Amino acid sequence: MRITALLLILLTISCENNKMDKNKTNIIPITTNSQEAKKHFEKARFLVQNGINANPTEEYDKAIELDSSFVRMYNFISIYSPDDSIKKLNHKLAEKYKHLVSKEEQMLVDATEFRFNNPKDFNEYKMFELVEICASDKYLHHTISFLLFRTNPKLAIKAGEKSIEIDDNYGSGYNILGYAYIRNDELDKAEKAFDNFIKCEPNNANPYDSKADLMIQLNRSGIKKL
Length: 226
Known about the structure:
Radius of gyration: 20 Å
Order of helices and strands: HHHHHHHHHHHH
Largest sheet: none
Distance between the termini: 70 Å
Number of strands: 0
Number of helices: 12
């Protein structure tokens, strides 16, 4: 009986460990040979996705200085930079080194390549292929929502809602979701999203700017708030 009980305990522990490993692999890895470079990447991602008025370029440069083959950093810039020439330059660098990184990161680079080659495709199906593998990655859902909120707001809303379902304290998830709601003429939902953004980050100026953008939109629509 004791042996049977011990085996059951060991089996339970093994199952729990497998679940934990599965959860870990359900997020896109950040492959780099420098932990400091990873920290700069994470800071840049926070600044960009949260719309904080700080210069992410400094973080980009520091990360790449520490790891010149940092595919994830190059790919991030190729997605979020407002400058098309910078996007393309960094995508080429991501392509150059993508054989060094994980399958998931390679899929990110491939999705960017597809986007450049198919500028009128507004479904991001390559990114959704990655979602099937990394469904618990809130940053991935944010990226999809960011890429689609102007061109396919309904799909952007699905991605944005998933990001805050994963983490209901994810401020930038509420932010991009709010803008997707605006583009889809769901202004009441946009207001709730921005209010949640403010709750998540009360000391960040950007949530209040986002709410102000909504108020301007409401005035243009002739909707008066009491």
